[in-house]
UniProtKB/TrEMBL annotation:
InterPro entries: Cyt_P450 (IPR001128), Cyt_P450_CS (IPR017972), Cyt_P450_E_grp-I (IPR002401), Cyt_P450_sf (IPR036396), Cytochrome_P450_Monooxygen (IPR050665). It holds the Pfam family p450. GO terms for cellular component: membrane. Belongs to the cytochrome P450 family. It is a single-pass membrane protein. It comes from Senna tora. Heme binds at residue 445. Keywords: Heme, Iron, Membrane, Metal-binding, Monooxygenase, Oxidoreductase, Transmembrane, Transmembrane helix. The keyword RNA-binding does not apply. The keyword Transmembrane helix applies. This is Cytochrome P450 CYP72A219-like. One of its GO terms (molecular function) is iron ion binding.
Length: 498
């Protein structure tokens, strides 16, 4: 080849390279600067308020600072106004700018939606308001139904729905009883070993493994041991991922965790996630559920997260509140004794527990295990009076909505199960979209009845066998770590009743 043609080929490749680089740079500038700035202008022109866009990082820095500050100390034991601790930055922005506000999640603006009619519009319309794409790390956790595109989601939801029909729950009740009863027996055994009627323990890890155990038994049936192993691996994986996600938010968190030996470096994290996935696949294969193995794995992952962390959160805060409000603990015990005596709780009876249901609804209002719901705006769309450009995201801040006096009255921040005495519809004055512990619309939690049934079973057995109070060692510190959890555990004192 002649020298001149080599030179001309090289210069044209160089030219193409430079043009590609310029295009990539221009696109990057558009996504991380021009687009956010354009959306900011549109939002502000409609009266929405928020911080000015900070290149690439958005509000991450003040968000990390707010979380660090809020979670550095417990709150007052009698404080059920948990938003400042559970969602510190959303709460701060809400306080500074009011309900018509937005935050910057990196370069994504997230508009706060709190009006009932706007919430209804957003959660009922999956086409215009899909779930936003998760970060690669979060995708390890949020799999299955939560992560699928519309059509695949509809297909999977249709396949999975029947497993959660109410009459099917009747069939899983014995397995729920079995797991709950084992926990009660172990507590009693610990008392017997000490020759005492009293036992102090941190109930949170117990409740957490209880709800994992219940899923293992109910989802895997005769392959219970396989299921148990899958969920154990899942838990390790979730914790690793959560730690990694946490370290993105809180500067210095990873270093601190590493010092304590809780988190390894990124490579090790990747390796562990990978090997866990492999092992889960093998066990998933063995449990032979008659579905595509990868699909089963993904749905299992989600059931683990959806089913274990949320239900144990509900049970945990119920125990805390019933310890703090012994009159409600006594009312609930009276009801359980009236309905079951010392018999094993059955399906019909659990469905008739009115006081226990009121208590659980009120706990879910003040301590929603999932404190916010997030959606994306696909293309420009109107939500009430607002015009939201494509690329905007939406936050429905469940916990702020649940404690809003404009919606729930002056006692909104107080524990008062009585408000649910005539059901959810009456308590919300017909605006059921202001009560969102299980989300709403077509993506409403598939496991809500399952979770409530499990919580009623566990609570009934606990109330039949023990009275309980908070230990002086308990520090009130709800924190958002995947779900709403007790930062320092939940130390209570159990008293055996008979
Ligand atoms: C107290 C317990 C529970 C709470 C508070 C809860 C809360 C929620 C919420 C708020 C959503 C909607 C999220 C969104 O729209 O972005 C959801 C979805 C979901 N939950 Fe639950 N959940 C609980 C228990 C369970 C259980 C026991 C299971 C399964 C065993 C489960 C499985 C799911 C699944 C699969 C989805 C995704 C549904 C879909 O996208 O179609 N959840 N949950």
């Amino acid at each position: 080849m002649e020298m001149s043609s080599i030179i001309s080929m090289a210069s044209s490749s160089l030219g193409i390279g430079i043009i590609s680089l310029v295009i990539i740079l221009m696109r990057a500038v558009y996504w991380v600067y021009l687009k956010p700035k354009r959306i900011e202008r549109i939002l502000r022109s409609q009266g929405l308020k928020g911080n000015s866009y900070n290149f690439v990082y958005g509000d991450y820095k003040p968000m990390a600072m707010a979380i660090k500050e809020a979670t550095s100390n417990p709150i007052n034991l009698n404080d059920d106004h948990i938003a400042p601790r559970a969602v510190p930055f959303d709460h701060l922005i809400h306080k500074l700018y009011g309900k018509e506000s937005f935050i910057w999640f990196g370069s994504n603006p997230r508009v706060n939606i709190m009006k009932p009619q706007e919430i209804r519009m957003v959660i009922n319309n999956m086409r215009d308001f899909p779930k936003p794409r998760n970060s690669p790390l979060a995708r390890y956790l949020l799999t299955g139904l939560l992560a699928l595109p519309d059509q695949k989601w509809a297909k999977h939801r249709k396949i999975i729905n029947p497993a959660f029909y109410l009459h099917k729950l009747k069939l899983v009740l014995p397995a729920m009883y079995e797991s709950c009863n084992e926990m009660i027996k172990e507590w009693k055994m610990m008392m017997n070993e000490k020759g005492s009627w009293k036992l102090e323990l941190d109930v949170y890890p117990w409740l957490n493994s209880l709800s994992g155990e219940v899923i293992s038994r109910t989802a895997f049936g005769s392959s219970f041991e396989e299921g148990r192993r899958v969920f154990q691996l899942q838990k390790e994986q979730a914790q690793l991922t959560a730690q990694a996600l946490h370290s993105l938010y809180i500067p210095g968190w990873r270093e601190e965790a590493m010092k304590k030996g809780e988190a390894a470096n990124d490579d090790l994290l990747g390796l562990l996630l990978e090997s866990n996935n492999k092992e889960i696949k093998e066990h998933g294969n063995k449990s032979n559920m008659g579905m595509n193995t990868q699909d089963v794995i993904n749905e299992c992952k989600l059931f683990y997260l959806g089913g274990q962390e949320t239900t144990s959160s509900l049970l945990n805060w119920t125990i805390v509140l019933l310890s703090r409000f012994p009159n409600w603990q006594e009312k609930a015990r009276e009801e359980v004794n009236l309905v079951f005596g010392s018999d094993i709780p059955d399906y019909g009876g659990l469905n008739h527990l009115k006081v226990v249901s009121m208590i659980l609804y009120e706990v879910l209002r003040l301590y929603p295990p999932i404190p916010t719901i997030v959606r994306a705006v696909r293309n420009e769309v109107k939500v009430g009076d607002l015009r939201l450009p494509g690329g905007t995201q939406i936050t429905i801040p469940t916990v702020l909505i649940h404690e809003d006096p404009e919606m729930w009255g002056e006692d909104a921040k107080e524990f008062n199960p009585e408000r649910f005495s005539e059901g959810i519809s009456k308590a919300t004055k017909g605006e059921i979209n202001i009560y969102l512990p299980f989300g709403g619309g077509p993506k409403i939690c598939i496991g809500q009845h399952y979770a409530l049934m499990e919580a009623k079973m566990a609570l009934s057995l606990i109330l039949q066998n023990f009275s309980f109070e908070l230990s002086p060692a308990y520090a009130h510190a709800p924190i958002m770590f995947l779900t709403l959890q007790p930062q320092y555990g939940t130390q209570i004192i159990l008293h055996k009743l008979h």
